[in-house]
Amino acid sequence: MSSVSALLRDLEATMTRGSTDDRTQILARLTDLFLSTAAGMEEDQVSIFDVVIGRLSRAIEVRARIELSERLAPIPNAPSGVVRQLALDEIAVARPVLIASKRLTDQDLVAVSAAKGRDHMLAITERPDLGEPVTDFLILRGGRVVTHAVAANQTARFSRHGMGVLVMRAVQDDALQATLGSRSDIPAELLDQLLVAAKNSARRRLTATLEPSLAGAVDMAVERGAQAIVAEAQMSDGYAKINAALIEINRLHEAGQLDEAKLVEFAAAGALEHAMCAVAALAQLGLPATEQIILGTDRDAVLLVGRALGWSWETTRALIGLRKDLGKSEVAIERARQSFRTLNTTTAQRVLGFLRMRDAQP
């Protein structure tokens, strides 16, 4: 430790009296030195850089910490303490090491997930070869969006219990069914359960449709039920509003006049049916899926779609305003704004892809 102490003494003047720029420059030079010699270093040598870089990195700006994270993430023997420190930082800093650093153990990843929450969990779901302790925790604590993301990671490994929970949740989640259906590691008995759930979901979607022509695809009992639903819906005011909105949105879409600004106009005016139809057209989703995104129990869904399609916060805020449960709550709106600001575009686009896959299922 004497060499570490000597190096710290040499840096003490900069740490106590130097500016942030001075510290950033010293850190950059130290990182350059480490990267140029890392391949031949023993662990005790790496530990010296761990102490010094770790101390300096606590006293620099976010931009510099992001750069440090990006530079250390692909290094197999990066200073482990610094990597763990970066992984617990805000998501912009943590993301590179959470996705790529081999220095983070399963225990580290579980600890970060427990301490930091959804955004960090989503970054972890992008890691290759996730172990069972990590996937078990993400499924247990991550919520629907994280569950979908980890289920889509084809190199992730799942315990028997973890996979069982996924299949159980897929019974009521068509998008998760589609994601699990692409995996090759589902045990036979769970695969049978997944197939039953998929058949029931297909049947449920068919019987709920407003298209009478589809009723002939099921047996006579289901056909009669579907026709009754259609007849009742066609006489309702809700059907008339949706039908009128569909006609208007289709006209705008075909004329090339349907865009984000038009969507904001509908949402700001409280035109729920028009806004839903517009989102469906722009996001390439069906109306049932779009209704769940805007009004369903997963309040983050609209944030993900907005980020995936490159919409502004103002547009997404207008869609949230259509909800009766939190559309007028300033606390909920601010929480949503913070989540939207930190949401990763690539992850959001992956989730939107999952939703489109669900709609494509027969």
Protein architecture, described:
The protein is an all-alpha fold and 362 residues long. It is 73% helix and 0% strand. It has 22 helices and no strands. About 8% of the residues have low confidence. This is DUF2336 domain-containing protein. It comes from Bosea vaviloviae.
* Succession of helices and strands: HHHHHHHHHHHHHHHHHHHHHH
The end-to-end distance, rounded to whole angstroms, is 65 Å
Biggest sheet overview: none
Radius of gyration equals 25 Å
Query: What count of helical segments does DSSP give?
Result: 22
Unreliable parts: 209-237
What level of helicity do the residues show? over 70%
Helix/strand-derived class?
Answer: mainly alpha
Give the number of DSSP strands: 0
Q: What gross morphology would you assign?
A: globular
Mean pLDDT: 82
Share of β-strand residues: under 5%
Features:
single chain, 362 residues, mainly alpha, 22 helices, DUF2336 domain-containing protein, DUF2336
Give a quick summary of the entry.
This protein has 22 helices and no strands. It starts with a helix and ends with a helix.
Task: Present the secondary structure layout.
Blueprint: H1 2-17, H2 20-37, H3 43-57, H4 62-72, H5 80-87, H6 91-100, H7 106-116, H8 118-124, H9 132-141, H10 143-151, H11 160-170, H12 174-181, H13 188-208, H14 220-235, H15 237-254, H16 260-268, H17 272-283, H18 287-295, H19 301-308, H20 313-320, H21 330-342, H22 345-360
Helix pairs in contact: 1-3, 2-3, 2-4, 3-5, 4-6, 5-6, 6-8, 7-8, 7-9, 9-10, 9-11, 11-12, 11-13, 12-13, 12-22, 15-17, 16-17, 16-20, 17-18, 19-20, 19-22
InterPro entries: DUF2336
Protein name: DUF2336 domain-containing protein
